[in-house]
Write a sequence for this structure.
């Protein structure tokens, strides 16, 4: 009789959950979005303005909105000075402002894993796949993507949700578009899958 009663109660609970639109518990997601250094200093009027940061941030926001709608983990990486106070230039840009509950990782180096809690956080959350976007393409995005791949993560970089700036070496000026393309070309295949925002969202 007790066994029958327990089964009946369990059945009623399952029926109630189904009636309320709740199915069986879903497994925790193993994929996270990592948004790197989309901060005020990279925009017009900032200390280090990039080429087309507004456009890149808008694509990053499209990706962010999709991950939020799917209730997938979102991690914001914010660069801060190793010494001295930080001003408003170091704030995360309003286009991708973190929501309460979204993880924010503070870093002081290009590689977001270096001397931060990022790796421990990902391990504890059971994350194996990272989708990365942000600024600058050839610096913090590339450094973090390479490190993630070396640590065994499955890495995707969203090309048009990243931005950079012109560089110069040995008297040769390199336009931002070429810096961007060269960085992505070195990542593609060996370290990461490189996609556009549209390609990523179509797969979601």
């Amino acid at each position: 009789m007790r066994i029958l009663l327990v089964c009946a109660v369990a059945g009623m609970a399952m029926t109630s959950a189904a009636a309320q639109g709740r199915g069986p518990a879903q497994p925790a997601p193993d994929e996270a979005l990592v948004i790197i250094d989309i901060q005020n200093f990279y925009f017009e009027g900032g200390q280090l303005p990039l080429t087309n940061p507004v456009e890149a941030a808008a694509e990053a926001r499209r990706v962010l909105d999709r991950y939020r709608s799917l209730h997938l983990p979102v991690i914001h990486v914010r660069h801060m000075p190793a010494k001295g106070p930080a001003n408003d230039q170091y704030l995360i840009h309003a286009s991708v402002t973190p929501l309460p509950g979204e993880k924010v990782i503070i870093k002081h180096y290009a590689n977001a894993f270096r001397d931060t809690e990022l790796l421990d956080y990902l391990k504890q959350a059971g994350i194996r796949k990272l989708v990365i976007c942000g600024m600058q393409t050839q610096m913090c995005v590339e450094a973090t993507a390479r490190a993630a791949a070396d640590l065994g993560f499955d890495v995707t970089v969203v090309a048009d949700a990243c931005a950079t700036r012109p560089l110069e070496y040995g008297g040769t000026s390199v336009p931002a578009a070429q810096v961007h393309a060269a960085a992505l070309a070195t990542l593609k295949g060996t370290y990461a899958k490189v996609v556009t925002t549209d390609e990523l969202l179509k797969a979601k």
About this structure: The mean pLDDT is 90. The chain is about 35% helix and 20% strand.
